[in-house]
Design brief:
single chain; alpha/beta; D-Maltodextrin-Binding Protein, domain 2; five-stranded mixed sheet; 12 helices; 10 strands; 17% strand
Length: 319
């Protein structure tokens, strides 16, 4: 009987020590972008809730550079013990790897994808002086003046550029792309009348749209947003292919213990469903989701397949 018991005990799965005791010390969440943006805001909201739920400090560390690539590379090279995580997203884990220069990491092989936060849709907005009341009139104007109307984006290879380039292809128009080093410069020049239009995240341009200093023609959300009931979607205006969000997420290095991933996924989803969290992000058009880690990993793979042809057709290059 003792021998049989010993055999049965040996057959039981043994969790790694890190999974058994995790989290036993503070956890670092790398935000690979500068403070103040959507990635930073979402990362800090989630970190605060994880700190409260798991009774261990989740510390946000901003490591900006190369469109999110530098901080993401640090996370990819970290020990897979659950104590170094990263705010991942479409910029660093889909678009950057698809650009000609690529990234020093593989967005699927080198990461464990944990949970999808969500993100704001893109908005295509114009200076109010432009004689176009809606997207159809803007397309008509662009066809009358090919190559003379300009649009600004947060930079080469950003989703702002890719959404606008896909819009150009679908509408059959020619717009001049003016890349900026960040969205704020593009929005500033739009208001000043230096460029005709801007394609960026809704959260970046929301204040100027509400103030009437920019006119939103369309957003890339799946449906109209309650806070912007007068702004149609691209799909409504005849471009169903243009449903996209600038999403952010939580990932870690490849090989994270499954128990750690499952616990984090559950706690992140609960944090995003809290009324105070939903209230904080709704003005940016961010809606929480309920993907588990396996479904989220499949989503990342789908996004790589979806945006690959668009990135290549756009001619986008690394800055």
């Amino acid at each position: 009987m003792k021998t049989l018991l010993a055999v049965l005990l040996l057959a039981l799965p043994v969790l790694p020590a890190s999974a058994q005791t995790w989290p036993a010390k503070p956890v670092k969440i790398i935000v690979p972008f500068a403070p103040g943006g959507s990635a930073d805001t979402l990362g800090r909201l989630v970190a605060a809730q994880l700190t409260e739920r798991l009774k261990v400090n989740f510390i946000v560390e901003n490591r900006p550079g190369a469109g999110g690539v530098l901080g993401s590379e640090l996370a990819a090279k970290a020990d897979p013990d659950g104590y170094t995580l990263v705010v991942s997203g479409i910029a660093s884990h889909v678009i950057a790897p698809l650009l000609p220069q690529g990234t020093p990491y593989d967005p699927l092989r080198d990461f464990t994808h944990i949970a999808l936060f969500g993100g704001p849709p893109a908005v295509f907005a114009i200076n109010p002086s432009v004689p176009a009341k809606d997207l159809k009139e803007f397309v008509s104007l662009a066809r009358q003046k090919p190559g003379t109307l300009s649009y600004g984006s947060p930079g080469n290879g950003t989703q702002g550029q890719l959404v606008a380039e896909l819009f150009k292809q679908l509408a059959g128009i020619d717009l001049l792309h003016v890349p900026y080093k960040g969205a704020s410069g593009a929005v500033t020049d739009l208001i000043a009348g230096q460029i005709t239009a801007v394609s960026t995240t809704l959260s970046t341009a929301a204040g100027q749209i509400r103030a009437g200093r920019a006119r939103a023609l369309a957003i890339s959300a799946a449906q109209r947003l309650p806070d912007y009931p007068d702004v149609p979607t691209f799909a409504e205006m005849g471009y169903p292919e243009l449903v996209a969000t600038v999403w952010f997420s939580l990932s870690g290095p490849a090989g994270l213990p499954a128990e750690v991933v499952s616990r984090l996924n559950e706690d992140v989803r609960r944090a995003l469903e809290l009324p105070e969290t939903r209230e904080r992000v709704k003005h940016d058009g961010i809606l929480p989701n309920r993907l588990d880690a396996k479904a989220f990993t499949a989503f990342v793979a789908d996004e790589l397949r979806r945006w690959g042809p668009i990135v290549r057709a756009s001619g986008a290059k690394n800055d």
